[in-house]
């Protein structure tokens, strides 16, 4: 018997995803406790919420491959003893995955039409994109459709280019990978460059900016509003709700059902074509 363990949080309990992995064996959403089943595990599916190292996979002695439906690999903490199959670098496929850019566009509209009082016109406003990779380019395309002006900053550009973007932009959208150069890219000092009538959107990683400094700026009216799809800030809907000018969502920007199914099918195909499961 072969077993696939699928620990991806967004797939949990959904037969639409589990059935696609059944071509490799019995699919479990948990780590079995008996030695027989542990010895049968051939494929491990994880997302960014599961930290994986050689100690973790050591409990599966016959594991053939780790599959992750992500482009970032920060949850893979060291070179593993088995191959890792991800979406990293698969641009032809990833360019069809538009959920995050759509979510960013929605956030711009929500901030301008709902958070802002009175509502604001979008056309003619300047969008500053931090990180002009695949997602940054898709967001730029969508913004152009709204008749927005677009400027950007990416790794390798001079620091003053980032300062100019923060000062000039009406909306700032973060789309850079989490890496040593991007961590805490927007410090409290950098956030002070943002105009009081501007908005910040982060669908990337919480580590990119100083979230506590952002929250203080929002509460003091130094930044008009923000939308965080990923955050380490803790709120309670009753006792400690977020300020009215802050939209918080639980990392759902990329979770449209169509894109999730397409990604699952693509990853299953990659694993099947790899030959590692034989």
Considering the chains and any ligands shown, give keywords for the structure.
alpha/beta, 2 domains, Rossmann fold, single chain, 6-stranded parallel sheet, 33% helix, 5-stranded parallel sheet, 278 residues
3D architecture notes:
With 278 residues, the protein is an alpha/beta fold. It folds into two domains: 3-89 and 257-274, 3-Layer(aba) Sandwich (Rossmann fold), CATH 3.40.50.720; 99-248, Rossmann fold (3-Layer(aba) Sandwich). It has ten helices and eleven strands. It has a six-stranded parallel β-sheet with strand order 7-6-8-9-10-11, sandwiched between helices. Strands 2-1-3-4-5 form a five-stranded parallel β-sheet. Strand 8 (171-174), helix 8 and strand 9 (199-202) form a beta-alpha-beta unit. Helix 1 runs parallel beside helix 10 and helix 5 (99-115) packs across helix 6. The longest helix has 18 residues, at 257-274. The radius of gyration is 21 Å and the shape is elongated. The two termini are 12 Å apart.
Summed up, the domain count is 2
Count of strand segments? 11
At CATH level 2, the architecture of the largest domain is 3-Layer(aba) Sandwich
Low-confidence stretches: none
Largest sheet: 6 strands, parallel
What class do helices, strands and sheet pairing give?
alpha/beta
Give the ordered list of helices and strands. EHEHEHEEHHEHEHEHEHEEH
Number of helices: 10
Provide the CATH superfamily of the largest domain.
Answer: NAD(P)-binding Rossmann-like Domain
- Average pLDDT rating: 94
Any idea of the CATH class of the largest domain? Alpha Beta
Q: Classify the helix fraction into a percent range.
A: 25-40%
Rounded radius of gyration (Å): 21 Å
Give the strand line-up of the largest sheet: 7-6-8-9-10-11
The span between the termini is 12 Å
Shape: elongated
CATH topology group of the largest domain: Rossmann fold
How much of the residues is beta strand, in percent? Answer: 15-25%
């Amino acid at each position: 018997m072969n077993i696939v363990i699928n620990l991806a949080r967004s797939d949990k309990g959904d037969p639409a995803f589990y059935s696609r992995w059944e071509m490799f064996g019995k699919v479990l959403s948990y780590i079995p406790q008996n030695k027989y089943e542990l010895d049968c595990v051939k494929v491990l599916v994880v997302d960014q919420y599961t930290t994986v190292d050689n100690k973790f996979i050591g409990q599966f002695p016959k594991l053939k491959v780790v599959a992750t439906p992500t482009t970032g690999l920060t949850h893979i903490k060291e070179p593993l003893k088995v191959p890792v199959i991800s979406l990293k670098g698969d641009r032809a496929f990833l360019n069809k995955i538009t959920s995050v850019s759509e979510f960013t566009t929605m956030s711009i509209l929500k901030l301008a039409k709902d958070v802002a009082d009175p509502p604001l016109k979008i056309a003619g406003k300047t969008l500053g994109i931090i990180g002009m990779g695949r997602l940054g380019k898709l967001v730029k395309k969508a913004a152009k459709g709204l008749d927005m002006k677009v400027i950007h900053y990416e790794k390798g550009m001079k620091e003053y280019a980032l300062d100019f973007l923060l000062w000039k932009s009406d909306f700032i959208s973060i789309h850079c990978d989490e890496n040593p150069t991007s961590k805490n890219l927007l410090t409290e000092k950098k956030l002070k460059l943002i105009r009081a009538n501007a908005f910040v959107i982060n669908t990337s990683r919480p580590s990119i900016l100083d979230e506590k400094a952002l929250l203080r700026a929002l509460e003091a009216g130094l930044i008009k509003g923000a939308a965080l799809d990923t955050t380490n800030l803790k709120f309670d809907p009753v006792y400690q709700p977020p300020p009215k000018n802050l939209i918080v969502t639980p990392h759902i920007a990329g979770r449209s059902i169509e894109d999730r199914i397409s990604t699952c099918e693509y990853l299953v195909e990659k694993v099947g074509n790899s030959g590692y499961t034989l």
